[in-house]
Predict the structure.
Amino acid sequence: KIALQSCMQLLDYDLALMSLRRTFSGAPGPYKWGVITETVCDLAMAILHDDEWGPRRLRAKAQELVPKREPVSNGTPLAQAKEQMVQSPVDPRGVVDVYID
């Protein structure tokens, strides 16, 4: 539930990024956790990229926990963004990735 409540929205792309990251005090994640997260990640990516899947037809029970879109007003001062160190994939269907530290 917390991951849904803290998702970041990319308004220009009509996308939301949700972090499912869990830390293990800097130690590598347990093997069983890695198997579970990689499987969930692969399944989510397969569903997102399946042309038969209709996100507007199938709704998750926890979907109402995702915060409503709150665009920043045009008058809000923003600093110049720095160039990214890595390229983040942007796909209108969504992208799923897993990182365990």
